[in-house]
Amino acid sequence: MNHPRDLITEYGLTPNKALGQNFLVDDSATELIVRTAAEPGLALLEIGPGLGALTFPLAETGLPLAAVELDKALAQILRGRLPERVHILNADFLKVRDAELAALPGFSEGVSVAANLPYYVTSPICMRLVLSELPVRRMTLMMQKEAAERFLAGPHDKNYVPLTVLAQWLFDVTPILELSPASYWPQPDVSSAVLRFDRSENELPAAMPRLVKAAFAMRRKTLVNNLCALGLTKSGAAELLGAAGIGPGARAEELSPEDFARLAVLMG
Hints:
Radius of gyration: 20 Å
Distance between the termini: 52 Å
Number of domains: 2
CATH superfamily of the largest domain: Vaccinia Virus protein VP39
Structural class: alpha/beta
CATH architecture of the largest domain: 3-Layer(aba) Sandwich
Largest sheet: 7 strands, mixed
CATH topology of the largest domain: Rossmann fold
Helix content: 25-40%
Order of helices and strands: HEHEHEHEHEHEHHEEEHHHH
Strand content: 15-25%
C-alpha cells in the first residue's frame, strides 16, 4: 500500500489537524492490530479508517467489514480502492444509529471494533462503544497514551473516571502495544497505545451509567451527597450504601466496578 503522504499528494489533499488525522505508517503495528481484531465469526467495524492503513488488511481477512469515516474526501478514496463488499459510511460515528450498523451483513451476530481514534474525541467514542446496543465482543483501540491510562486505572487513581468503571465492568482490558510519534504521519506530539477489550460475561445493570455519572460529578464530595442528584435523600442514599456494604463516608474514587454494579442492582 502507498505511503499516506503519497496518497495525500496524489489526491491534492492536506491532513486535517482539526479531525486529528495522523495516519499509521508502522507495518508491524498494523499487522498486530489486524491480527488482534480479526476474530472468526465476528464482523469488523473500523472507526476513522483515514487512508486505509488498517482497512485494506482487514478487508483481506474476508470477514464482513464496515468503516465509518467523517472526512468525505477520504471516504471517497476508500470507496474507489476497496472491494464493493466493504461498506464505507461517510458519517460521524457518534451520530450513526446502532440499528443502521446492526442491519449490515453479519453485524447482528457479533462485532469486533478496530480504530485509530482521534485524540480529541476518544472518550465520547469509547463511551458510545461501551454502551452500544451492538453485540460488541472485542475492541482493538489505538489512542493517546494518556487516554489509555484511564482504562487501566484503579480506585484512588486520578485517571479513574466513569468511563473506567463502565469499561472495566463490561470488558477485560489488556494493553498490547505502545507507539511512538514516529509510527504516524504527520507525527503527533504524543505517544500512543493500543488496548484490547474482550467482552466479559457481566451484564450492565440499567441504573449503572447514570449512577456512575452522578457519583463522579463532584469527586471530592461523598457518595451520600452526590447521589442526591438522583432524587435520593441523604438518609436514603446512606441506607442504599449500607445495603451494598459501602460506608456513608465513601467517595466514588474508592469504589470498584463491582461495588458500583452491586449498588446499581439495588437501585433497580
